[in-house]
Design goal:
Strand content: 25-35%
CATH architecture of the largest domain: 3-Layer(aba) Sandwich
CATH class of the largest domain: Alpha Beta
Largest sheet: 7 strands, mixed
CATH topology of the largest domain: Rossmann fold
Number of strands: 20
Distance between the termini: 66 Å
Amino acid sequence: MSEAYAILKKGEGRGIKSGSAWIYDNEIERVEGDFENGDVIEVHDFDGYFMGRGFINMNSKIRVRMLSRRRDAVIDETFIRQRVRDAWNYRKEVIDTSSCRIIFGEADFLPGIVVDKFSDVLVVESLALGIDRWKLTIVDELKKILAADGITIRGVYERSDAKVRLKEGMEPGKGFIGDAFDTKVEIVENGVRYIVDVEDGQKTGFFLDQKNNRAAIHSLCKGKKVLDCFTHTGSFALNAGIAGAKSVLGVDASDLAIHQARENAVLNKLEETVKFECADVFELLPKLEAEGERYDVVILDPPAFTKSRNSIKQAVKGYREINIRGMKLVKNGGYLCTCSCSHFMDPELFAKTIKEAAAGAHKRLRQVEFKTQGPDHPILWAADTSYYLKFYIFQVVEER
C-alpha cells in the first residue's frame, strides 16, 4: 500500500459517507504523498477524519474505488483472498452454483472485477486498474477454493474487452489466462441446456442474471403461444419451450445470436416447437399486429437502451414504444413479461414508463410479480450501480 492519501473537499463525499464505493475526481481537494495509478491509498475527509482505503487512478473520473472502511485493514494478498472466499461462500448459500456469477465487483467489495462460472470454466472481466493488478491472485484463489469443494476448473478466459477500460487508461483485450481450451461450454440452467460461447458471446458469454426470472415464466407457458423479443441466444424462449409451450417464436436482430439460439433449440430437442427469426423487434411487432397475430405470453428482454444519464429521455421513448407494441400483441387475459437492464432506468421511472405504455395501448395491467437480478448479482444498498435489472410479470386485460 502507498502512504499517500486523498483529502476530500469540504461538503463532498456524500456518496462514500452513505456507503458508496466510488469517489469522483471533482470530490477531491488534493492528493498528498507519492503513489502510482492503481495503488491503494487512504482517504480523509476535509478535516482529516479517516474514511477508508481504496485504489486510486488519476486517469479515471472515478478517482478512488473503496476497498475498506477499517483503519486497521491491510490490503494485501491475504485480504484479497479472503474477499474471494467470502464471495464463493455466499453463492453456495443462495443459488445453484453449477453456473453463476461468483464475483460481482463492488457488491462483493472487490471493485471493478466480475467473474462468471460456466460449468467448469471461469470468465473474468476486469474493468479497473487497481483490481487488474490482483486479477491473477483472484483467479488462483477461486481455483483453489472450488477444488476444495470438488470442482475442477478446466480453463479461464478473460473478457476485458469493454471500451470502458479506456476511461481507466487501459486497453481492452481478451484471451486465455493459462492454457487454451475449447471456449464453447455446455451449461444447464432451469433444466435447459445451452452452448455458451465465452470467447465471442455478448459480455462474458451468457446473461446469468435472469436465471430466476426465466424460471418464473414456466408456470405461465404450458400449452401457450409465446413470443420472446430480444431473445439473444434463446434463453427465455427455450424456458418457455421446456415448460411445455405449444409454440414459441424468438426474435433478435443478431444473426450470430439467432444461429446460436437455433443450435440450443436442437440441443434441447425443441426445434419443432421453438422457432427463431432474425429481425428488428421494433419493425416486426407492428407487422405482427397488422397481421392479426396474438400471443398468450409476450416477453420483452431488450438490451440497455441507455448507458448514461444523458440519453434517458430517448431510452424512455424506446421502452414506452416497445411495451405498447408488446401489450397490443397479448391476448386478453394473457401475460406480459417485461424488463430493463439499464441502471439509469431506475425502478420508479421504469414503472412510470410501463404505466404510460398501458394507457397508450388501452390495456389494464394486473401485476403478478416483480423481480430483480439473481442473488448471485447481489444488490448492495448505497452502491446504486449494483441494482440494474427490473423484471415484471403482468396479466394484460382489456379496458372494461
